[in-house]
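Hi R.,

Here's the chain you asked about this morning:
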Amino acid sequence: MDKIAHEVRTQEWFGIIQACNASGQPKRQWCEENGVSVRKFFYWQKKIREQLYNEVKKKENAMVPVPCTEAFQLPPAFAEIAATKVPVGTDGSFQADAVIMVGGVSIQLSNTATKELLDRISGALSHAV
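And the predicted structure, written out as tokens:
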């Protein structure tokens, strides 16, 4: 069977299998009532399941990131961030205007944070994540 004919037959049987499954009837009973060979039904069901399984596995393998080994891991890097004056509330506690949460780390910022500070934080976070 050539490739195009196989694809056409696969689509045809896929529709038959979907109709059977949607009926809620036992497969053998549905096949008998609809003039479908039980042997061919189960043959094509197996073929289509295998094909779908292989397609899913290919997609999973293409999407799975390759874990880093020690040889490819970058050493930890540290970025110096200059301290700025911290705005405090009337009770002496820090009053955050914005909070950035990445993983288990929380960074609290005030509106007085400079562009340079935000750029450094952004750069440090891009290497950490």
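The chain has a mean pLDDT of 79.

Let me know if you need anything else.
M.
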